[in-house]
User: Fold TetR/AcrR family transcriptional regulator from Nocardiopsis alba.
Amino acid sequence: MTDNKKPDHSRRKERSRRAILEATRALVAEEGYDGISIEAIASRAGVGKQTIYRRWPSKDAVVFAAILALGENRDGDDIALPDTGDLRADLRLVLRATVEEFTDPAFDRLMRAVNTAVSDNETLAARYREEFARPLDEAKRARLLSAREAGELSPDADLDLMLETLYAPLFQRWLHRSGPLTAEYADALVDTALRAFGP
Amino acid sequence: MTDNKKPDHSRRKERSRRAILEATRALVAEEGYDGISIEAIASRAGVGKQTIYRRWPSKDAVVFAAILALGENRDGDDIALPDTGDLRADLRLVLRATVEEFTDPAFDRLMRAVNTAVSDNETLAARYREEFARPLDEAKRARLLSAREAGELSPDADLDLMLETLYAPLFQRWLHRSGPLTAEYADALVDTALRAFGP
Assistant:
């Protein structure tokens, strides 16, 4: 309803915004951050360069917006972790999927672009945490909370620290390319976290 | 002896190399990576721009060389971990020192520059691992090995995974500015790793 009442130019604006952000993600995934330009994005999205510059001051800004937009239409069900009542099995499934995601070349290029942006700029880091990472972290935390209540974790387990213990080694290994990212590695991370935070 | 036999121009070259790398580190620490230029480095080091370009093709390359050079004159004693026979106490000391290092603004800027370089470039990542990170990792690993032999760790403790469990959360928190870096946090990381890998 609300959408139908929107004046045409506002719907057109939203369409062009989405086209720009999709083109940006596709190009970063194909070419990597250094290989793309505002011109290439405009051409891929079928808009003029000025349409991009009216909204975003730089390539950094549009790439970052393109990443954040991935989080826009997530709802709770999309990002909830499985809860079969067996924490080890559920975490292995999730960590193995995360490993696979990080070894996908398109995802790899996108995430390296995000990381550089976030590392260099405190404002972007805060937006990334709030708009992108936090909902995911809360979904993970909810699964750990249910496990703690079910007695699968120690009653005083620090769930934020447990999340870091699970995910940070994988993240660092990926960022520094310092070791293989495999299903066995995912399982070893789960086992380590359960030894540290189990009952 | 060998040094005395070096022809003058070779000693001069080495002196100018060191001056350039020191000037680079000082400038990155003061201004951050984005705030510096080859011109500023040349001026600070008292050399011409061409002297820099003859050796390094880009700002990236000279900044990276400046970081690697920090590892050049390290010897085993400099980087060995304390070994008092009490692993928990020794690791707390070391992790607390690491936290302090990461909260120092000059170190912070240098390391963010390194990380961006390493994240974006596989060749630099490999050089960083081999020339800079590996000797430090081996020193840490030696301390864990001695603890495992003394029965302070489980006989089948995976020491590389234990190092990642100790350091990766701190690294990720620092890179993404996602939480406070405090002595209490350092202690919590040590306790987590010892619960996971203890006997």
Notes: Chain A is about 75% helix and 0% strand. The mean pLDDT of chain A is 89. Residues 102 and 111 of chain A are 8 Å apart (CA to CA). The interface with chain B takes residues 33-34, 112, 115-116, 118-120, 122, 125-126, 128-129, 133, 158, 160-161, 164-165, 167-169, 171-173, 175-179, 188-189, 192-193, 195-197 of chain A (CB under 8 Å).
